[in-house]
């Protein structure tokens, strides 16, 4: 039941996007998000859409799988769109009582909706095609220069990878404990707020106990293998750029260049 | 006939990349008062199968009948089913949460909506049944040893007085003494109250000693469903499924090959002793 949450989940497939260097994917996602907010014109969005659709196609992750991530934010999405639709002042094109839709509102709501959707699609595409380990490796490497200004880059990356690793474990554990308590007649669904909050105690106590036990075991296992922080630590699979990564960087540059050209052309028209 | 499985299939994470067909076309009947063993290699689907019996997971396809009623009917009360089919999970001690042993065991009966006295009487009986002495009733369940925790968790289900008791590897990780104690108590329970019992285990000795009938799972399918002796006489097939017969069965087979006239359908040490003595007296 709980396992159907897909945000931040890896989807194994054999595609170029999966094989790309995680640093590139982080930079690419970052650039993509910036482009969403800076090139918000009609033709600009055509280019952005084309880009996103082709990357999804190449990644071989089924679209319905990525789209499931949208379900989680559908409420926020509707909220934003409705507010923008009705509350933007300007040239009215439709009126019903105190509700009115303006031309500007329509435009704004459409862009806002698309922007949010693309934001989710783009970033979930990154997590779908990159394992959590790769992701933290990439982040560590990207942020590595920051250690000169005393940022504990390795520790941050390690904490992140452990946290990411624990998410599915804890979800599984929650599922198991929930079932075990349901077998003892627990009822997590009915009753008022107070009763429901109380019914969570039999779930939360064992969950915390098990999280602490696991954390303790993990710390023990790390010590037993002589872990002592990032100092002098080498990697089994060090990140190295390949030919395809340089090509991908070129494509990213091209993408930005096209967007800028579109913007300039639109300015001229 | 208490539980009937009719062509049950279950698929985990259906429609994703992690799809897994864990249970395939299972047909099965469990009769009232039986003591059934369920064995199978790791990942063969035992835990998944038993979670269907009290409606914790809903089959992807197929029907389950409990005491003649379809449990997937619109107005079937699943909570009532769960009070009649008690399921003790693998490592049940991980579900303890209360501040005292007594309160923890009391949680199940309280959920049944019994009055306070009745619930406490059942708690009292259940704790007695699993052999947890009164001096431990006020202790925190987290202070107990592993074996004691396990007993408290089993008492938590027994206190609900289920008609069917399902135990998922109740002896995993216990010492031999603790293992025998728990199984012995379950066996007594079966004899005295006529409770239907389904025991999931990796120990062939355990099933040989206690159960009348064995179900064998392999890669999600039910491949054998026969009396204990018949199943173990097919130990060649069991070996192909990464299972085995009890060790005494192998000894008896070896003796037979050495020319002793002993039966080979022996599954417990006691039977083996009698059989060997008989042969020596001849
Ligand atoms: N919650 C789950 N989500 C996805 N797949 C699962 C889940 N639980 C079990 N599986 C898969 O279903 C299959 C059957 O698992 P199950 O736990 O029923 O096996 P088992 O026979 O109880 O094994 P064991 O003897 O190790 O307890 C396994 O391949 C397992 O990977
Ligand atoms: Mg299991």
From TrEMBL, chain A:
Q: Name the residues that span the membrane.
A: 26-53, 65-87, 108-131, 151-171, 246-265
List the keywords (alphabetical).
Cell membrane, Membrane, Transmembrane, Transmembrane helix, Transport
A Gene Ontology cellular-component term: plasma membrane
InterPro entries in the cross-refs:
ABC/ECF_trnsptr_transmembrane, EcfT
The answer to whether the entry has keyword Membrane is yes
CDD domains in the cross-refs: EcfT
- Where does the UniProt annotation locate this protein? Cell membrane
Q: How does it sit in the membrane?
A: Multi-pass membrane protein
- Where does the UniProt entry say this protein principally localizes? membrane
| UniProt GO MF annotations | transmembrane transporter activity
Record text on subunit structure and interactions: Forms a stable energy-coupling factor (ECF) transporter complex composed of 2 membrane-embedded substrate-binding proteins (S component), 2 ATP-binding proteins (A component) and 2 transmembrane proteins (T component).
**Homology family:** Belongs to the energy-coupling factor EcfT family.
HAMAP family hit by this protein: EcfT (MF_01461)
Q: What does this protein do?
A: Transmembrane (T) component of an energy-coupling factor (ECF) ABC-transporter complex. Unlike classic ABC transporters this ECF transporter provides the energy necessary to transport a number of different substrates.
Indicate what this protein is called per its UniProt record: Energy-coupling factor transporter transmembrane protein EcfT
Question: What is the species of this protein?
Answer: Mobilitalea sibirica
From TrEMBL, chain B:
* Lineage of origin: Bacteria, Bacillati, Bacillota, Clostridia, Lachnospirales
Entry GO CC: ATP-binding cassette (ABC) transporter complex
GO MF term (any one) = ATPase-coupled transmembrane transporter activity
Q: Which InterPro entries match?
A: AAA+_ATPase (IPR003593), ABC_transporter-like_ATP-bd (IPR003439), ABC_transporter-like_CS (IPR017871), ABC_transpr_CbiO/EcfA_su (IPR015856), ECF_ABC_transporter_ATP-bd (IPR050095), EcfA2 (IPR030946), P-loop_NTPase (IPR027417)
Chief location bin: membrane
The scientific name of the source species is Mobilitalea sibirica
Bilayer topology term: Peripheral membrane protein
Subunit arrangement?
Answer: Forms a stable energy-coupling factor (ECF) transporter complex composed of 2 membrane-embedded substrate-binding proteins (S component), 2 ATP-binding proteins (A component) and 2 transmembrane proteins (T component).
EC no. given is 7.-.-.-
What is this protein identified as?
Energy-coupling factor transporter ATP-binding protein EcfA2
SMART domains attached here? Answer: AAA
The ABC transporter domain sits at 3-244
Q: What does this protein do?
A: ATP-binding (A) component of a common energy-coupling factor (ECF) ABC-transporter complex.
Q: Which UniProt keywords apply?
A: ATP-binding, Cell membrane, Membrane, Nucleotide-binding, Translocase, Transport
């Amino acid at each position: 039941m709980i396992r159907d949450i897909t945000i931040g989940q890896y989807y194994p497939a054999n595609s170029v996007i999966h094989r790309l260097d995680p640093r590139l994917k982080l930079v690419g996602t970052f650039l993509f998000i910036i482009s969403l907010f800076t090139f918000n014109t009609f033709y600009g969005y055509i280019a952005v859409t084309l880009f996103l659709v082709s990357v999804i196609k190449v990644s071989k992750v089924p679209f319905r799988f990525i789209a499931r991530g949208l379900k989680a934010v559908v409420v926020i999405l509707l909220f934003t769109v409705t507010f923008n639709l009705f509350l933007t002042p300007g040239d009215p094109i439709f009126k019903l009582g105190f509700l009115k839709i303006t031309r500007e509102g329509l435009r704004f709501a459409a862009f806002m909706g698309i922007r949010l959707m693309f934001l989710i699609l783009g970033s979930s595409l990154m997590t779908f095609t990159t394992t959590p380990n790769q992701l933290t490796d990439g982040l560590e490497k990207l942020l590595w220069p920051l250690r000169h200004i005393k940022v504990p880059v390795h520790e941050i990356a390690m904490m992140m990878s452990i946290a990411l690793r624990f998410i599915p474990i804890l979800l599984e554990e929650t599922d198991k404990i929930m079932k075990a308590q349901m077998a003892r007649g627990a009822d997590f669904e009915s009753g008022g707020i107070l009763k429901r909050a109380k019914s969570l105690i039999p779930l939360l106590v064992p969950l915390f106990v098990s999280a602490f036990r696991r954390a303790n075991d993990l710390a023990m296992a790390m010590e037993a293998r002589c872990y002592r922080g990032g100092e002098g630590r080498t990697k089994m699979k060090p990140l190295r750029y390949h030919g395809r990564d340089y090509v991908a960087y070129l494509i990213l540059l091209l993408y930005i260049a096209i967007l800028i050209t579109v913007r300039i052309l639109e300015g001229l028209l | 006939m208490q539980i009937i499985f009719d062509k049950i299939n279950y698929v985990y994470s259906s429609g994703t990349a992690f799809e897994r067909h864990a249970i395939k076309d299972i047909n099965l009947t469990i009769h009232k008062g039986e003591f059934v063993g369920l064995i199978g290699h790791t990942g063969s689907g035992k835990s998944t199968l038993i979670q269907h019996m009290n409606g914790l997971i809903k089959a992807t396809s197929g029907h389950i009948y409990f005491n003649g009623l379809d449990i997937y009917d619109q107005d079937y009360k699943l909570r009532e089913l769960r009070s009649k089919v008690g399921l003790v999970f693998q490592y049940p001690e991980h579900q303890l949460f209360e501040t005292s042993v007594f309160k923890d065991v009391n949680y199940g009966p309280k959920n049944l909506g019994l009055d306070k006295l009745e619930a406490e009487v059942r708690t009292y009986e259940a704790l007695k049944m699993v052999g947890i002495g009164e001096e431990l009733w006020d202790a925190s369940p987290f202070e107990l040893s592993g074996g004691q925790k396990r007993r408290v968790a089993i008492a938590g289900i027994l206190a609900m007085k289920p008609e069917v008791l399902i135990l998922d590897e109740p002896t995993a990780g216990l010492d031999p003494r603790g293992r025998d104690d728990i199984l012995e108590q379950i066996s007594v329970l079966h004899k005295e109250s006529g409770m239907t019992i389904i025991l999931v285990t990796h120990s062939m000795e355990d099933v040989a000693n206690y159960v009348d009938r064995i179900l064998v799972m392999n890669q999600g399918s039910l491949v054998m469903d026969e009396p204990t002796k018949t199943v173990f006489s097919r130990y060649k097939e069991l070996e192909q499924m990464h299972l085995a017969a009890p060790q005494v069965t192998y000894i008896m087979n070896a003796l037979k090959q050495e020319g002793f006239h002993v039966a080979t359908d022996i599954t417990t040490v006691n039977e083996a002793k009698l059989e060997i003595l008989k042969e020596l007296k001849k």
